[in-house]
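Forum > Structural Biology > Help requests

Title: Can anyone predict the 3D structure of SNF family Na+-dependent transporter?

Hi all, first post here. I have the sequence for SNF family Na+-dependent transporter but no way to get a structure on my laptop. I'd be grateful if someone could post the structure tokens.
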Amino acid sequence: MKNDKKQYMTPFAERIIRELIKRKKEEKKRERLVRISGWITTSACALILISLLTIGSSNDEITLFQMFTSNVGFIVVAICISAAAFLVFEKKKLDEAEKEYQELRNEVVDRYEEIWHTEQLRKQSYILYDWLEKEHDVNLFHR
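Reply #1:
Sure, ran it for you. Structure tokens for SNF family Na+-dependent transporter below:
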């Protein structure tokens, strides 16, 4: 594909496709970070909830205050709060990355005849679109 890309696209189209691939990778990266931080937040909150339930049901002299002021309790709460803040931050970044990707993708779809301006390039564009979908999960066949 890379060796004979001139038969598939113009230099302008190549720049757009490279940018589209770059934005898709950024979107996937942000999506992965949101998923990881979500799992960490959920796990830390579950650990806090389990701790609260076990302290509430036990007759030990450990109070909630003592649990949260201990080193372990403080670390778990700090992890939970930090992961939740990171989750919110990354979710905003993900939304922004999705928006940028969708805008460029829609522009490529809308400007199809301008980007692939000759009949031969149009025929070859389907090969390129298929490759983009299989290799980079970029679907340009429709809006």
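The mean pLDDT is 85. The two ends are 24 Å apart (CA to CA).
Shout if anything looks off.
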